[in-house]
Amino acid sequence: MNDVVRLIARSLRTSLRQPAAIIPGFAISVFFLFVYNAGLSSVASLPGFHGSYLDFILPVAIVSAAIGGATLAGEALIRDISSGYFTKLLLTPASRLALIWGPIVAGGMMLVAQVAVIVVLALLMGLGSATGPAGLLVVLAFAFLWGMAFSGFAVFIALRTKNGAATQAATLIFFPLIFLSATFVPKQYITSSWLKVAADINPTTYVFNAMRSVLIDGWQAEPLLVGLAVVLAFATVTGALALWQARKATQLS
Amino acid sequence: MTSPQSSDRSISVEQLSRRFGDLLAVDDVDLQIGSGEIFGFLGPNGAGKSTLVKMLTTILAPSSGRAVVAGFDVRRQQGKARQVIGVALQEVGLDPLMTARELVVLQAQLFGASTGAAGETAGRLLQTVGLADVEPKKRVGEYSGGMKRRLDLALALAHDPQVLFLDEPTTGLDPASRIDIWDEVRRLNSEQGMTIFLTTQYLEEADKLADRVAIIDHGRIVAMGTPAGLKRGLGEEVVELSFETPQDAERAASVLADTAPQRRPGDGGLRCYFPVAAREVPGIVRALDQASIPLRGLTIDKPTLDDVFLRVTGESLRAREESGDGEPLPEAVKR
What we know:
The structure holds two protein chains of two kinds. Chain A has eleven helices and no strands. Chain A has helices at residues 2-16, 19-40, 53-83, 85-90, 96-124, 132-161, 164-170, 174-179, 193-201, 203-217, 221-252. In chain A, helix 6 (132-161) runs antiparallel to helix 10 (203-217) and helix 6 runs parallel beside helix 11 (221-252). Chain B has two domains: 11-224, Rossmann fold (3-Layer(aba) Sandwich); 231-328, Alpha-Beta Plaits, CATH 3.30.70. Chain B has helices at 49-56, 78-84, 100-110, 115-128, 145-156, 175-192, 203-209, 227-233, 246-255, 277-290, 305-313, 317-325; strands at residues 11-20, 23-33, 38-42, 64-69, 72-73, 85-88, 163-167, 195-200, 212-217, 220-225, 237-243, 263-266, 269-274, 295-301. Chain B has a six-stranded mixed beta sheet, with helices on both faces. Chain B has a four-stranded antiparallel beta sheet with strand order 2-1-4-5, covered by helices on one side. Chain B has a four-stranded antiparallel beta sheet with strand order 12-13-11-14, with helices on one face. In chain B, a hairpin with a 2-residue loop joins strand 12 and strand 13. In chain B, helix 3 crosses helix 4 (115-128). The longest helix of chain B has 18 residues, at 175-192. Classes of the chains: A mainly alpha, B alpha/beta. The interface between A and B is medium-sized, with 27 and 30 residues.
């Protein structure tokens, strides 16, 4: 357990030494927040829509920031592989789980920091939370878990390909995860039947639902529990893939 | 081996092989290395040295065979084996964004040291490898190649290993840094009794440092013994001839075809092998005189490890290095 903490601390420290790498993901999510809110906020006046559009769109900005967090985690691992430091870590008795948790958890934590800033911006823009500050903490918790799930995937691809460009390309898979969902309008307004089906399959939908429920509707067990189950399942799958690949790294390289 | 003791610093390798697709990188290697020995593994680039080191240090699975280091099977007791093995691979493994001290401290901690002990270890090791005076905030990315190599050695020592693996520790280093590493290897061996497994493509390095040497070529061990024993085992002495021009050397080679049937090109001349060299000198001089080939120098020499290498592989290691297969040793080190 000590190893996990030390490796997370080390991942955070080195990530913070490259502040430039953090900026793009952060800028994109702030961009989402401003532009979609400015351009689409009239959606909120549609009959049947309740709450403010800012509450509705904030989770989209957060999930898009998670892509940035995941990319950071993947890139950090690629950096370690190409510098040879990852091999050095493989030569230590530290558990293989600790080796991949370093970048994955650090990715989640960097995301939380970014999301906190985004939430503050949203509050300045007039964000209201139906569940108050506690609801905002729930939003942060979902962001953390979702960031870790994405990071697990990026770390898996990084270990598998050992290639920075491939890792970046693989994070593009997150775009359908964001946009094939009730991204900009509530699901009842989606007219295309295939997009409705896609939104039902897409795990992100349930994360959006959970975050929106605390921001717009107040405490509701169902969306929170479903959202939590989905995000934990997704994180477990990507984490297991990453661990499997890390164990394989000592067999083949 | 069922009850390994902390004083066991031996390495035992049985029929170890590793295949990459069609390539048999390590082919049926057997080795017994005693506690406290410096063992040199000599071979050209691509001979299988690094593959063997990776298998012995747990990070590459063998295709077949087994290896036990300091009493621990490197496949079935990976965690325990890693705890007693120190490794500096051919490519250094350092995070360029961290400082030297951060790297040594984390390394010691990952091997179980407390924060306080890790800090002390870092101070001591950075002193040992001569990096104590570097600006503490300087990130490793700004270090020179020689500094990185020394820091990598410090990391390999962070947990006081029983057995130290050094994969080509001096390749690419300047002569002064190379001699520093040699001194450090000798010190670790004599003061701490560490068993040291060292690979190299430099004959002089194996000759000067190692108690015993194995020569590896195309994944197979082709000769093993003490450097002196291997040279003596050739049962021969050398007449080294040098000439004014390469053309003279070529002509001499054909003129001496009968007089010196065992010969090869040397540094600007010819090396001819005989059971007793002195007896052959008159014949050589006579033959060259009759062919009017001016001789620049003639020395009687003992065989070198390169001569051994030539005999067991059919090719000179130095010739392979010079054909671009590896880097030649800088002149200054050939002392």
